[in-house]
Structure to design on (87 residues):
């Protein structure tokens, strides 16, 4: 059982304010991709513990494959991300 959505938004909002107002760098490992990409500046996509894609959260939110597989869609096919996409 997870936290209520309003509490999650409050926590992420507080982290975003700390980042903006205090200049703190914050690393968050979050399974809820929609929430993570809503508040993050940058994101790294991990598959089986390996970085397979990274970039600005805004760019990742716009990608059709990220929308499909991480923001409410289908299971990820094997070897989905090309090697050159990983940085």
């Amino acid at each position: 059982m997870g936290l209520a959505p309003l509490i999650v938004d409050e926590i992420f909002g507080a982290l975003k304010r700390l980042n903006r107002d205090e200049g703190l760098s914050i690393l968050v490992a979050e399974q809820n991709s929609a929430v993570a990409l809503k508040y993050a500046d940058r994101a790294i996509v991990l598959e089986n513990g390996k970085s397979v894609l990274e970039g600005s959260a805004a760019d990742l939110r716009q990608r059709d494959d990220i929308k499909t597989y991480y923001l409410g869609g289908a299971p990820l096919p094997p070897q989905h991300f090309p090697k050159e996409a990983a940085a």
